[in-house]
Amino acid sequence: MNVLVINCGSSSLKYQLIDMRDERVIAKGLCERIGIEGSRIKHTAADKDAVIINGYMPDHKAAIKFVIDALVSPETGVIKSVDEITAVGHRVVHGGENFSSSTIIDATVMNAIRDCIDLAPLHNPANIVGIEACQALMPGTPQVAVFDTAFHQTMPEKAYLYAVPYEYYRKYKLRKYGFHGTSHKYVSLRTAEFLGKKVEDLKLVICHLGNGASVCAIDGGKSIDTTMGLTPLEGLAMGTRSGDLDPAIVQFIADKEHLTLKQVIEVLNKQSGVLGVSEISSDFRDLEDACDAGNERAMVTMDLFAYRVAKYVGAYAAAMNGIDAVVFTAGLGENSGVVREDVCKYLNFLGVKVDKDKNKCRGIEQDFSAEWAHCKSLVIPTNEELMIARDTKDLVDNL
């Protein structure tokens, strides 16, 4: 079975074709500048060098046609015809309360995804366009929606309700939803395998740290709390997002800077976080270089970030009455030993202790706990595409 995984952004499209017999990626790529002059695909077939395919892609349907052509081309392809694609798995950002797991896409599911556009106005429309394009170009091929929010639907009311008038929840479903769910699900399952235990027997705090970042409390394989909320703006300070703040700050900035509410939210989403505090960069690699050069603002910013991650780890340890492991994943979590150590130094009270030599790792699975540590500290690289492909396979196998 070959599963095509599609992740549509507003002007981009990432894809992977995975042979589910051995879960091997046989082709992958990125369509860039969709609807913009200079659009192109960077396509990589297994065991071959990447190639650039230039060509105007006015919309996502055209981009997916380019992807299919690249997959079946004698020069760049890995399959002989589109019929060799058994199913398509789509990353969908928001499923609201409608979906607690991945699902085969039909008209009812499409309507439910459209109903969530208000909750994810930047993402769900692009996801819908990608699904419709695949349906048009591959009629009869099963399409599966895998929701970023679904994994967090196990959160209890005490975790997902906001302390605002309950009628807002009743009328608008105003609540915490959480994101990065596909990543948190994959990492929790892989952590259990790595430790040789059942996920049902573990209490984990997973730190998905990158330009977008979230922490998740997973008890027995189920999400019981996570840092992102109604939108991805809540929680940790991130690359350009503010994370948690006093809600009155929104009105304060609007009054002082003569901005509209929409403009303030734009500032909090795109000009804040570590970029806003450091005034250097949203890229943590730049901040680490600046720290090495003695830049005080960079050092304060990195301290702020690690401190906030550690606070949530501690809070989630309390929520679960203890933890078995703190797990780091995603671009920053997998590659920055500095950030991992800075977070873990706050967690000695949980029995976390870092082995500095083991922590000198990048992008590999690693237990970097010291010998006497009572709580494991791990690096487990995420693989959202594989999780999407697995969910897709499971559903299609049962058709």
UniProtKB/TrEMBL annotation:
The record describes how the cofactor is bound as: Mg(2+). Can also accept Mn(2+).
Per the record, the major location class is cytoplasm
The GO molecular function terms of this record are:
acetate kinase activity; ATP binding; magnesium ion binding
Q: Which UniProt keywords apply?
A: ATP-binding, Cytoplasm, Kinase, Magnesium, Metal-binding, Nucleotide-binding, Transferase
Superkingdom of this protein's organism: Bacteria
GO cellular component annotations of the record: cytoplasm
- Residues bound to Mg(2+): N7, E384
Q: Where is this site: Transition state stabilizer?
A: H180, R241
* InterPro entries, alphabetized: Ac/propionate_kinase, Aliphatic_acid_kin_short-chain, Aliphatic_acid_kinase_CS, ATPase_NBD
Q: Name one Pfam family in it.
A: Acetate_kinase
Q: Which reaction does it catalyse?
A: acetate + ATP = acetyl phosphate + ADP
**KW Transferase (keyword) present:** yes
Question: What cofactors does this protein use?
Answer: Mg(2+); Mn(2+)
Binding positions (ATP): K14, H208, L209, G210, N211, G212, D283, F284, R285, G331, L332, G333, E334, N335
Q: Span of the secretion signal?
A: none
> Which residues are involved in binding substrate?
R91
- Protein's pathway: Metabolic intermediate biosynthesis; acetyl-CoA biosynthesis; acetyl-CoA from acetate: step 1/2
- Protein's UniProt keywords contain Cytoplasm: yes
Q: How does it assemble?
A: Homodimer.
Q: What function is annotated for this protein?
A: Catalyzes the formation of acetyl phosphate from acetate and ATP. Can also catalyze the reverse reaction.
Stated family: Belongs to the acetokinase family.
Q: What is this protein called?
A: Acetate kinase
Biological source species: Anaerotalea alkaliphila
Q: Which gene encodes it?
A: ackA
